[in-house]
Design goal:
Blueprint lengths: L7 E3 L5 E3 L6 H9 L8 H14 L4 H14 L5 H5 L3 H8 L8 H17 L5 H6 L20 H12 L7 H10 L42
Helix pairs in contact: 2-3, 2-6, 2-9, 8-9
Length: 221
């Protein structure tokens, strides 16, 4: 039961959430309304990949707090707009205290926007990312059960890199999969477990999603 699991906290609303999701109202809102919900539009996926890349080596709380500033700085994560960024934009972003000022990550975000635009000729970013949807998702009962990557994430990372994406290692790829609903890593007992519609509470892929991805990790795309 959730109230016997030390990694779950019962909120005043009676809902069980993992401890990490209860540290602030911002985290609670993100957990309740966004994390693990399906994202299948190009701009949404580009944003998640970008933010997860900026999070690398840092706390997600930092990125989440800076998200409005990121959206303003990166033109609402419109791939076409960011793909047109030049040296002046890099300098502007490096001077923007509202975001994480890491030149390599900024240049990767711009390069990834250009890769996103190029991918439209081969089906687009959503089709590529979701082609790695697994047949099953884990059923973690504690935070110790959570993994940092998966065979699908490793294959997705390789495919993205082949298409010119940067800062998309297996851990970043897996974090993106968690964020966009391709993996349901809500703890067993959490009120969000199985709520995305992609997987059932037991971890099996729901019928409506059976033809979206592939049952096994792909090594080419």
């Amino acid at each position: 039961m959730a109230d016997h699991n030390p990694d779950l906290v019962i909120g005043e609303d009676g809902r069980a959430r993992p401890r990490w999701a209860t540290s602030s109202p911002l985290y609670i809102d993100y957990y309740d309304n966004e994390w693990g919900q399906p994202v299948r539009d190009e701009a949404g996926l580009y944003e998640r990949l970008t933010l997860e890349g900026f999070q690398s080596g840092l706390s997600w709380a930092i990125v989440l707090a800076k998200r409005p500033a990121f959206r303003a700085a990166f033109s609402g994560f419109d791939p076409d707009a960011v793909a047109a960024f030049g040296d002046d934009d890099v300098a502007r972003l490096m001077a923007d205290a509202g975001i994480i000022r890491n030149r390599r990550k900024i240049e990767a975000a711009i390069g990834n926007a250009r890769a996103t635009v190029r991918l439209r000729e081969q089906g687009g970013l959503p089709a590529l990312v979701w082609s790695f949807l697994p047949e099953r998702t884990p059923a973690p009962e504690s935070l110790a059960d959570l993994r940092a990557t998966s065979p699908e994430a490793m294959a997705l990372s390789k495919a993205l890199k082949r298409h010119g994406f940067q800062w998309v290692g297996p851990t970043t790829a897996y974090a993106t999969m968690q964020a966009i609903g391709m993996v349901d890593d809500h703890l067993v007992g959490s009120w969000r477990r199985g709520s995305s519609g992609v997987f059932g509470a037991d971890g099996t892929l729901n019928a409506g999603w059976a033809n979206v991805g592939h049952a096994s990790p792909r090594t080419s795309a």
